[in-house]
Amino acid sequence: MSSIDYSQKIPNNVNLGDDRRLQRALENWQPAYLDWWNQLGPADSSELEIYLRTAVAVDADGWAQFGMVKMPEYRWGIFLADAEADRKINFGMHKGEAAWQDVPGEYRSDLRRLIVTQGDTEPASVEQQRALGRTCPSLYDLRSLFQVNVEEGRHLWAMVYLLHAHFGRDGREEADELLARHSGDADKPRILEAFNVPTEDWLSFFMFTYFQDRDGKFQLNALSESGFDPLSRTCRFMLTEEAHHMFVGESGVGRIIQRSTELSAKHDTLDIEAHGGIPLPMIQKYINFHFSICLDLFGQERSTNAANFYTTGLKGRFGETKIDDDHVLDGASYKLPDVEGGKVVWSDQPALTAINEVLRDEYHEDSQRGLNRWNKAIKAAGVAFDLRLPHTAFNRNIGTFRDVNASPTGEIIGRDEWDRNAATWLPNDADRGHVKSLMVPVTEPGRMANWIAAPARGIHGQDVEFEYVKFH
Ligand SMILES: [Fe+2]
Ligand SMILES: [Fe+2]
User: Fold this and answer.
1) What ligand has the least distance to the C-alpha of 129?
2) Which residue among 63, 198, 223, 334 sits deepest, i.e. has the most Cβ atoms within 10 Å of its Cβ?
3) For residue 213, how far is its CA from the centre of ligand 1 (angstroms)?
4) 155 alpha carbon to ligand 1 midpoint, in Å?
5) Which CATH architecture has domain 16-470?
6) What are the residue boundaries of the structural domains of the chain, listed by start?
7) What is the 3-state secondary structure (H, E, C) of the chain?
8) Could you read off the pLDDT of 136-181 as tens digits, one per residue?
């Protein structure tokens, strides 16, 4: 296990000091990063002291140290998981060859594109969430938001390190562009659509950390299988941080559901708006929205790009090495959807071109697990309501279902029917207005907003009442 050198201007466990040129280039990028953080990072936050964790070593247990930190003084740095001795490429045409420590010339532009696309989502989410601190439901939650934000900032560092260390001048230019594009910017938007809408309320934030960060988990896992070893090691460490983001999402949505269920049981109705809660049917609409836009993040069902990334060993499948097959997928097939005669039908197609769908299906299954837990809790509280993931055809903007309308249960419907029902399937203005009306800041230690239940326990052994954020 390697520990992290905090005596350097840029904390790292990659012996950055041995490569003066690279060190200087990154030290030049650092002030631009801090400028970006101060301008587009969490609003009104620079003077707050926050109970944050910081990486001290990259092994799975006990890598973190907790303490009160002002965010502009957070030590963002470069942390790679330890190298595996004699690591091999585990799939595609180079299967069995030694993993690459340098970028193979022929895959340079593909690898750069994969890294830039991943890297772009990291600062994007910080920008999307920047105003949320003003309406936190508790200090505990405010701290969770800021922890996620500083770690997304670090994920940007992770990708920028790869660009600077392995892609020369192009890489440095791409690193600058990562700070030049902004979420929702008319001229220079972020690359992926789901990262260009602001996260305006805390229900959306918890949905985001449940659904979008889970997309991150699946992308990072597939990239951690890469034959390009520095990318693999970077992503492996990022995944340990990502796990916490999903915890914030699952527990956050879970606590809202718990409170909504309590209010529904008490007043014997799902209609709890007047009681200051978020009705379960409204939560269902937010699930419909976030899940469907996240399915788009996995790309087209049939993709020769994805097939090439796989065959050339750049990006694997989720848990590639644990899958029991030839890891080449020659002649293998996979079920893909099509719309035929007004219905969704499935047929066997070449597995290689279906790589995106394979990852999307894994994501789908993983997303369902949290819903199962939430539904169990709703049932146990004696409320009759079942949360469901919408059908894969619902509300899609990429791939097979882009040009059709589908109901949440997967019936292909006409435009009229969609227009008549969209406001009952997706959050409408009144829903968003209600949720927004509940977003009043609660900053007394231990207190929670009325629409969310308290967490079962605090952070890192602290009480829920602990002052996780100090304003003075
Ligand atoms: Fe991230
Ligand atoms: Fe994340």
Assistant:
1) 2
2) 223
3) 7
4) 5
5) Orthogonal Bundle (1.10)
6) 16-470
7) CCECECCCCCCECCCHHHCHHHHHHHHHHHHHHHHHHHHHCCCCCCCCEEEEEEECECCCCCCEEEEEEEHHHCCCCECCCCCCCCCECCCHHHCCCECECCCCHHHHHHHHHHHHHHHHHHHHHHHHCCCHHHHCCCHHHHHHHHHHHHHHHHHHHHHHHHHHHHCHHHHHHHHHHHHHCCCCCCCCCCCCHHHCCCCCCHHHHHHHHHHHHHHHHHHHHHHHCCCEHHHHHHHHHHHHHHHHHHHHHHHHHHHHHHHHHHHHHHHCCCCCHHHCCCCHHHHHHHHHHHHHHHHHCCCCCCCHHHHHHHHCCCCCCCCHHHCCCCCCCCCCEEEEEEEECCEEEEEEEEHHHHHHHHHHHHHHHHHHHHHHHHHHHHHHCCCCCCCCCCCCCCCCCCCCCCCCEECCCCCEECHHHHHHHHHHHCCCHHHHHHHHHCCCCCCCCCCCCCCCCCCCCCCCCCCCCCCCEECC
8) 999 999 999 999 999 999 999 999 999 999 999 999 999 999 999 9
